[in-house]
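Data deposition worksheet. Section B asks for the primary sequence of the deposited chain exactly as it was used as input, without tags or linkers unless they were present during the calculation. Section C holds the resulting structure in token form. Section D is free text for depositor observations; keep each observation to a single sentence. Incomplete worksheets are returned to the depositor.
Section A, Depositor: J.P.
Section B:
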Amino acid sequence: MVRSHRMRRGSTFVVLLIAATGWLCDASAQVRRDDGSWRELQPGLGYRRLDLDGSSYHAVMVDLTKHDLRVADARRDGRTSATVDVLAREAHALVALNGTFFDDKGRALGLVVSEGRELNPLRDVSWWAALIIRDAASGPVAEILTTAELRALPPAERGALRLALQVGPRTVSAGRPLKLKQQFADRSAACVLDPQHVVLVATEKAPVESNELAALMSAPGGDRGFGCSAGLMFDGGSSTQLEIATPALRLSVTGGWGVPNALVVVSRSGS
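Section C:
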């Protein structure tokens, strides 16, 4: 059976939800009630924080017309893993979130594509899915595809993917929360608001139940929801890590160990 570090330690999968609120200046700022608004960190990048039932949800909204999503691979010089803050610095990233599951040797599991280059092969697990970005006439387009949908892509289409990160399970489909196994953990997640806006999420302080995360991600955007059309959990538990390094906000959610890769946000050339 395929196992990640989270699975080996009896923990649950993580959700990647990134909420941002306009009032937070730094990680130690006073906790206030989320009002549903996004604080602009810079053009095309927003932050929102939601405190709910003892858990803090940190969310980042990314405009794909102004910023690229890439995968920072930890493999270099014999290294198989690294903490997300290290991967963020190496990638000169504005934001970084931990990514895929991995085996007991620290090797990434699932499809990983970055800047059009496949770094890790597709894994045939039915309940997994992938956040993908491909180029269209209107610009970069984000969506979440199931493993079956990924398998069905013609080779030319799969080869044309700009980004893919295969994890699971999905949390939202067609704007509705999916029924998930009840599990509690720190969460990392990502969701698609519309084809050109992606939200990254990480939680801390208290474990989050998987169905509560799905409900929050799918609820209408505003005071207690993100309004996502599709959502996906990343590896969670002690893998959950988020780094924000912008002039407007510096924030770190630290985990318990290194990870094989991170989803990073970098400014597009000319933005």
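Section D:
The chain has one domain: 5-267.
Residues 1-33 have pLDDT under 50 and may be disordered.
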